[in-house]
Structures are given as structure tokens and as C-alpha cells.
Write a structure and sequence with these properties.
The protein is α+β, with helices and mostly antiparallel strands and 499 residues long. Helix content is 39%, strand content 16%. The chain contains 17 helices and 21 strands. Strands 1-10-9-8-6-2-3-16 form an eight-stranded mixed beta sheet, with helices on both faces. Helix 1 crosses helix 10 and helix 10 crosses helix 13. The radius of gyration is 24 Å and the shape is globular. The protein binds pyridoxal-5'-phosphate. Pyridoxal-5'-phosphate (PLP) binds next to helix 4.
């Protein structure tokens, strides 16, 4: 039995290694039987070790849905390391955690306050739960061309307008590393007697270094979901859900997590969570100091290249919705090169050997994490140097400055704290029809249409298609932006809900 609070232990990983190494005649699933029957090509790819450890919920390996052995111990260690009261390992990404979180706090028809630009996994949770989202706008900076955080006043105003909202959900830090003032938002939610759920998919590392954004749990969040695989060293799809306090019904959450995950959780994923926690608890601050230093070097050198501008803490700190910026996220504005971020991404990826995380119209966002090396930074700088070289003939010239100017002056057509006519669940199951854009005005949309920039949906599925919203989408597309979610990307026809 391990000491529950000895962070040098890896109870699940160690038990898995023991089970994988011992001789055994296996008459259980999976069918490859510890790799013995694995296809040669798979064995060559994964290696013997990974296949031997691809084991089911053997007695020694505990049960994810009724943990009392090594999974219980590993989750307890994780709760302590990440600053939670209780932690659940997730084998189906933050996606299953966010879905379960919504199922845990909302009954059908209940209202929940969510940002308009939530990840699709939250929309999936709304469909599953039958909850009704009240949408709030993130702050948008036309000058930077970026959606920022959620202002606390926006939350207060929405709760005043809809006092029956059952929970608040915020994404922080965002894909671009922007942290909202969760402390203020938690205080507002708690004063209403409701929980704050935080999609911290992009912040599993923040608890382990003081120079990173303040973790959501430390700011008072009740439930936090983190993609351990996105930033720390867990395998893809391995995530965690953390809870503290008594505003979340943990039994219901536990039941909901069984609705959204496989009954055969992958043991390699669970072991990778145990290992990622161990790595952070024992050497996280030192590793992250190196990562922060590497990111700082890359930021400064990229920013010094002609035509490139890196979004800095000073750029975002004046905005009311921003509490902090994760400087290991590097967002590079390439507009002054006279090409879009999408074109820059193509050149970097196809010919310069550099692949970024998120290309957008004006920006490229890079994740710098503990896996990056000084050599990676050198390659990255080399690639961007060639990209920014004035003698390089641009692959294509589209000028995003007209679009930026439009967005700076455009009256954004949606209203704050809106409630869609139809819930995401009703919209999901409704019969649809395809109409010409002109005919579609006044109908409920069957699709969520987002203009990039700013990447905030202009029309959500279940909302009325207004002439103003359609004009906004069309203009962004005409000015060189792009629209996601449209079954007809030209926007000549739209999919509506059949009346
Ligand atoms: C903000 C946000 N939330 C949730 C998710 C879903 O996370 P996962 O891929 O771990 O299921 C993502 C994935 O990109 C995300 O960006």
C-alpha cells in the first residue's frame, strides 16, 4: 500500500508495469493478448512494451468507475498535486469531462451561462443534458484581432437578467493563453448560490509555476476540466476533472462520467496521467522554468523579425476581461507580411519544417511546452525568418487590413446574454431544410455559423437568422475572412430548422 500523499509514487503506472511484465496465460480482452497476436505493423509502430501494457481492468488495476485500489490512489495523488479535493481521470479527453459536468449541474431545460465561443464539447454537453445556454460575449479586441476573456460584469449582468441560471461556465485560459478574472466571476456565481465550472483544457500546467496564470481552483472554481495531454506529457485523450467544495453533486457527476466514457478505458492513457502528475509534482517547477525561458527567447526573437508581432502581456493587460496571459502560448500576428495566417501556416508546414498549433486569419498560435528543445526553437526561428524575408515572393497576397478595419468599426450583430429560441438539444433533433440565404432570414438556424475573425459564433444552431447577422457573415467572407459551420461555404444557401 502506498502512502497516499507520497508524490514520488506512481501507483497505477507501477501496477501496470508489474502486470505487463509478469508471465501469464491471458484469456481476457483485448484480443491481441499482450501483443502476442498483434499485427506485425502495429507491433513495429508501438513496440512490445506498449502492447504488453495494453491491459483491461484486471483486479490489480482497479476500476475507473468504482476506484478503490491503484486508480483511487493515483487520483488522490493527482487531487493533491493539482489543488483539488477530488480528481477523476478521464480516458475520453476533456470532451467527456465537460459533457459530464453539464449533465451533473443541469436538468433538462435548465439555464447555464456560457461564452458564445465555447468549445464544441460544451455544445455536445448541452445537447446531451437538454440544458438551455444563455450566451455571453467574450471581450473582443479589434486592435489585436482576438477574442479575450469574460468580463466579470458580463456574468453579473447575465445573472441579474436570468436569476434562474443554474451554473456559469468559463473557458480560461483560452487557446491564446488569456486568463479571465475567475476570482471575481466565482464570487458573483457563489453569491447567486451556483457553481463556477472552468474549461481549463489549455491550463493543466498552470498550478506548477508562479509565473503562469493563477489556477482556476485557486481562484475558487468548483469544477475544472483539464486536457493533461495538450500541455503536459500525458498521451492524447488523457485528461482530468477536478472538484472542490459542495456545490457539485459528486455522485451525479460520477454517474455522468460513466455515460460519456468507454467501459474499457485504455490503461496506457491512465498510466500516462499518473506519470504526468508524478512529473509535475516532483519536477514541475524546474521543467516549467525551462519552458518559460525557452518561450521567452522565442517570443523576443519572433517579435524582432520584420512584419511579425507577438502578442505580449502588455498588449492584453489593459483589457478588463484579462487577468493574466500564459506566455508559453505564443500568438504571432502576421498581418504585416501581407499574407494570412492560413497562408503562412501552409508555407511553414509544407516548405519550412515548422508546424504550429492554431492558424487563424491574422495569427498563428504556437504551444511551447516541456517537450520543446532549444533545437526546436532554432528551427522555428529559421522558418519564420524565411517566411518574413522580404525577398520571398508571397504565395498569395490577400490583405487582412481591410477586414481588420471592418471589424474595428462593425457593430457586432449579436446581443449580450441571449437565450436561443431552441435549445441545442431541440435544434440537434429538429428536421432541417435548405433555403436560399434571403429566404432563410427569420428562420431558426440548424447550423452554428462562426466568422473568423473573431471566431465567435454569429448565429448559433437554434437562433433566429437575422438580416444583420447574415450581412456580417457575408462581409467577413467577402473581406477575406472565413466562415465555419456552414453546409454551403458560399453562404448562398443556409440550413434551417423546418417549422
Ligand atoms: C477550449 C477547449 N475545451 C475543450 C476541448 C476538448 O478537449 P479534448 O480534446 O481533451 O477532448 C478543447 C480541445 O481542443 C478545447 O480547445
Amino acid at each position: 500500500v502506498v502512502d497516499r500523499l507520497d508524490q514520488s509514487q506512481t501507483p497505477f503506472l507501477s501496477a501496470l508495469r508489474h502486470c505487463a511484465q509478469r508471465p501469464q496465460a491471458a484469456f481476457y480482452a483485448p484480443g491481441h493478448k499482450r501483443g502476442q497476436g498483434a499485427p506485425v505493423r502495429l507491433r513495429e509502430l508501438l513496440g512490445e512494451g506498449a502492447l504488453r501494457a495494453d491491459l483491461p481492468e484486471l483486479t490489480e488495476l482497479d476500476n475507473l468507475f468504482a476506484p478503490e485500489g491503484v486508480i483511487f490512489q493515483a487520483q488522490t495523488l493527482a487531487a493533491e498535486a493539482f489543488g483539488a479535493e477530488q480528481t477523476w481521470f478521464l480516458a475520453n479527453g476533456s470532451t467527456c469531462g465537460l459533457e459530464a459536468a453539464i449533465l451533473a449541474v443541469c436538468d433538462p431545460q435548465d439555464k447555464i451561462l456560457v461564452p458564445r465561443n465555447v468549445h464544441r464539447s460544451v455544445v455536445a454537453g448541452l445537447v446531451l443534458a437538454g440544458a438551455r445556454p444563455v450566451f455571453m460575449e467574450p471581450e473582443y479586441s479589434p486592435a489585436l484581432g482576438l477574442a479575450l476573456g469574460i468580463p466579470a460584469e458580463t456574468v453579473a449582468a447575465a445573472l441579474a437578467h436570468h436569476p434562474d441560471i443554474k451554473a456559469v461556465l468559463v473557458v480560461s485560459p483560452t487557446y491564446h493563453g488569456i486568463g479571465s478574472d475567475l476570482e471575481a466571476i466565482a464570487a458573483i456565481a457563489h453569491a447567486h448560490g451556483i457553481p463556477l465550472l472552468v474549461d481549463e483544457a489549455h491550463g493543466p500546467h498552470v498550478a506548477f509555476h508562479p509565473a503562469l496564470p493563477t489556477p482556476a481552483l485557486r481562484q475558487g472554481a468548483d469544477l475544472v476540466v483539464q486536457s493533461t495531454h495538450k500541455v503536459l506529457a500525458a498521451l492524447s485523450q488523457a485528461s482530468m476533472l477536478h472538484v472542490q467544495g459542495n456545490r457539485i453533486n459528486r455522485d451525479r457527476l460520477h454517474a455522468a462520467l460513466q455515460l460519456t466514457q468507454s467501459t474499457s478505458p485504455n490503461s496506457l492513457l491512465l498510466a500516462s496521467l499518473d506519470a504526468a502528475r508524478h512529473q509535475m509534482a516532483t519536477e514541475g517547477e524546474a521543467l516549467l522554468s525551462d519552458t518559460l525561458a525557452l518561450a521567452q527567447t522565442l517570443r523576443e526573437r519572433l517579435d524582432a523579425l520584420p512584419g511579425l508581432r507577438v502578442i505580449s502581456p502588455q498588449d492584453v493587460s489593459p483589457y478588463a476581461s484579462v487577468r493574466d496571459l500564459d506566455t508559453t502560448r505564443i500568438t504571432v500576428d502576421v498581418a504585416d507580411l501581407g499574407i494570412t495566417g492560413l497562408e503562412a501556416d501552409e508555407i511553414l508546414n509544407d516548405t519550412l519544417g515548422v508546424t504550429v498549433e492554431l492558424p487563424e486569419l491574422r495569427h498563428l498560435t504556437l504551444i511551447v511546452s516541456l517537450g520543446n528543445t532549444a533545437a526546436d526553437v532554432g528551427h522555428c526561428l529559421n522558418g519564420f525568418r524565411q517566411l518574413a524575408d522580404p525577398s520571398r515572393s508571397p504565395a498569395h497576397t490577400s490583405d487582412p487590413s481591410a477586414l481588420t478595419s471592418f471589424l474595428t468599426h462593425a457593430a457586432y450583430p449579436s446581443q449580450p446574454s441571449t437565450l436561443a429560441a431552441l435549445s441545442p438539444r431541440d435544434a440537434f433533433f429538429a428536421p432541417t431544410a435548405t433555403l436560399s440565404a434571403a429566404e432563410a432570414i427569420g428562420h431558426l438556424s440548424a447550423e452554428t455559423l462562426s466568422a473568423y475573425p473573431p471566431g465567435i459564433p454569429t448565429v448559433m444552431a437554434g437562433e433566429t437568422i437575422t438580416a444583420a447577422a447574415l450581412a456580417h457573415l457575408t462581409t467577413v467572407a467577402q473581406q477575406g475572412g472565413y466562415i465555419t459551420g456552414a453546409s454551403d461555404p458560399t453562404l448562398r444557401t443556409l440550413k434551417v430548422i423546418r417549422a
